[in-house]
Amino acid sequence: MTRLVLPILLTALSIASAGCSPPSADIAADPSPADNVAAVENAAVAAPAVAAAVPTPAAVADSKAVPSQGALKTFGDWAVGCDNGLRCTLASLLPEAGEADNVTLNIVREGDAETKVYIDSRDEAIRPASLWVDGKQIATKLTPESALAIAKALPAGRRLELRNRKDSAVATISLKGVAAAMRYADAVQGRAGTPDALVATGRSTRVVEAPALPVIVAPAIAGEAAKPTAAQLATMRKQAECDLVD
After folding, report:
1. Domain tally for the chain?
2. What is d(CA 46, CA 64) in angstroms, rounded to the nearest whole number?
3. Is residue 174 included in any domain, yes or no?
4. Domain coverage including residue 185
5. Is residue 86, in this structure, part of any structural domain at all?
6. Does the global pTM surpass 0.85?
7. Phi and psi for 105 in degrees, rounded to 5?
8. Interatomic CA distance for residues 81 and 72, integer angstroms
9. What pLDDT score does 157 carry?
10. What is the pLDDT of residues 189-223, one digit of tens each?
11. From start to end of the chain, where are the E strands?
12. CB-based contact 26:127 (threshold 8 Å)
């Protein structure tokens, strides 16, 4: 039994990061814990030779939810979409014409109000050390703790600038429309008028919780997995190749 989240495929994100770009830098990602091999080995030695009873999972009814694509809204130079778990993603758009830094800023607002900030770039040389809005520094450490403060500093500005350790600008992002995009996300999540809103803040004391997700009961799979032929593998490898463009 699995729980299904029906995601929104943001066209804005596809435009910003399509092609054979290198993996984007997740500036809000938590570090992976180190493997404790010794502890695992010790536990294995000390474990009693008694098979533990495995509980049988309780039967859960399928929600029979009908998949539907959520709306994608564009506000100026920003796009926003939300899924059925009230997870909203805001993405800056690249210019349709002219020079571009191939850098986009993504703001993810979870249904429980957790906020994450990501920077996507095709240029591995772009490693910002600080963020500036209209010449004012708003962050020097891009961490999960600073994500909400970064997001709330954007609506009042016109341009976001990414600077390196030498205090030189490496990329700029237009903030036209970001306030409207955030206001839309606040309304979809039901946070408009509450202290937890991104821009449409208020004093309302109502509690906003993420909705329950639909339950999907996966059908049992019978038979053996098919093994691809050599010709099929060759075709898949060919289709996975990318033409790198300077």
Report:
1. 1
2. 46
3. yes
4. 2-31+65-205
5. yes
6. no
7. -110, 130
8. 5
9. 96
10. 999 999 999 999 999 998 888 888 899 888 888 88
11. 2-3, 72-75, 78-82, 88-92, 103-109, 115-121, 130-133, 136-139, 159-163, 169-174, 215-216
12. no
